[in-house]
Amino acid sequence: MLVLSRKRGQSIVINSNIEIFVTAIEGDQVKLGIRAPREYSIHRKEVLEDVRASNQNAISRKFDIQELERWVQSHNSEHK
Amino acid sequence: MVYSLLKDTVIDLAQGIVGFEQLRYFRAVEVGPGSIFGMLQSEEDPNVGFVVVSPFDVYDDYEFKLSDEIIEGLDIKQPEDIIVLSIITVSPKFKESTLNLVAPIVINLSSGKGRQFILDTARIYSIHAPLFPRQEGGE
């Protein structure tokens, strides 16, 4: 991993089409500005990790579906 | 129901599901006749399937804005072509199941392309929103 030090206002350029600016430093928190082609998705890492974990937990097996169908059928008359 | 619209479609999610980027083609079928629940099943790995529901069937005030990037990426030409499905985490106590409102799966019916779209984190939605937000009386 490449580690660079930047001061407020300085930036880093990746691949000539991505630029990351340090826009503010407030105590523990660094504010970053990111300029990148719009087809690039940019996310806070922990959000991505949370979605990944949620997806992995959500994998359903065939028997889950049967349970689900049974539950839905038994509750069909009560719902909405 | 959305599943009748998707019935004969192979959905191209092209690296679209976070954590399952190696899987590309999926089908969506309803769990039972007329059910709001569906199964998003991988064509490539039979072990990968997700129970899904249209989030608007659960939270009718749910809304989000599509980025230019996803509109272009999925070739979206008109809003009527868009189908949204949320992945459900099924709980052994089914009523405690949750759905992911932060990362809906957006599908363009017209192009067959789709992707899991992560919403702006400034939003107030939850990755684990209750599938049954109101307690029905007497249960």
What does this structure look like?
- The complex is a heterodimer of chains A (80) and B (139).
- With 80 residues, chain A is an alpha+beta fold.
- Helices cover 35% and strands 25% of the residues of chain A.
- The longest helix of chain A has 14 residues.
- The longest helix of chain B has 6 residues.
- Chain B is globular and about 35 Å long.
- Chains A and B meet through helix 1 and helix 2 of A and strand 4, helix 2 and strand 5 of B.
Name a few traits of the molecule.
heterodimer; A: 80 residues; alpha+beta; three-stranded antiparallel beta sheet; 2 helices; B: 139 residues; mainly beta; nine-stranded antiparallel beta sheet; 9 strands
Task: Give a quick rundown of the structure.
The complex is a heterodimer of chains A (about 80) and B (about 140). By secondary structure, chain A is of the alpha+beta class.
